[in-house]
Design a protein that fits this description.
By secondary structure, the chain is mainly alpha-helical. 71% of the residues lie in helices and 7% in strands. It contains six helices and three strands; from the N terminus they run H-E-H-H-E-E-H-H-H. The longest helix has 24 residues, at 54-77. It is globular and about 55 Å long. The chain starts with a helix and ends with a helix.
Length: 168
């Protein structure tokens, strides 16, 4: 992965963490789309990697299990509350701690795997982050559905109207 892509990914995650610490609406698009997109990009990276071994595949599967578990644990700690008639979410200190711990465990797992001869490039960062956010969503969505408060409406984006005019 090139340096600018990694920097962009890190900046994006930091911005997301700041919004989640301050509190933001819990809507379907922001809960489902990022994990799906990141996982798709990660899978394309894995499939496109030349020289993938069965050990690499096991390493990828193991790291996905770790990411999914930390994401699910993080999803259980997020505070859900009603605001302006819609469901909002806010990371607690424990949510942030689980995020940092998950990153540390993932990095440790990577160092250990590379030490045992697995290809470091075989597991894209997008896949790891996407799986972690998928774990979070798998817990948040049922929690949100069980509440008496509806999910927030998806934000209107500048390009949404343009896309809708092209679809018709």
């Amino acid at each position: 992965m090139s340096g600018w892509v990694l920097v962009s990914l890190v900046v994006g995650v930091v911005v997301m963490l700041v919004f989640r610490m301050l509190g933001e609406p819990l809507n379907w698009r922001d809960t489902v789309a990022p994990p799906v997109v990141l996982i798709a990009i990660g899978v394309v990276g894995v499939v496109g990697f030349k020289g993938l071994t069965s050990a690499d595949v096991w390493w990828i599967v193991g790291s996905c299990v770790v990411g999914l578990a930390f994401g699910a644990a993080r999803g259980a700690t997020i505070r859900l509350y009603a605001k302006k008639g819609a469901l909002w979410q806010r990371y607690r200190k424990s949510s942030l701690a689980l995020f940092v711990l998950g990153v540390a465990v993932s990095l440790g797992f990577t160092v250990l795997a590379v030490k045992f001869g697995m290809h470091e490039q075989a597991r894209p960062y997008q896949l790891a982050i996407g799986v972690s956010f998928a774990g979070e969503a798998l817990v948040l969505i049922p929690r949100g559905l069980r509440s008496d408060v509806p999910f927030a409406k998806d934000k209107e984006r500048p390009w949404d109207k343009w896309l809708q005019s092209r679809v018709r």
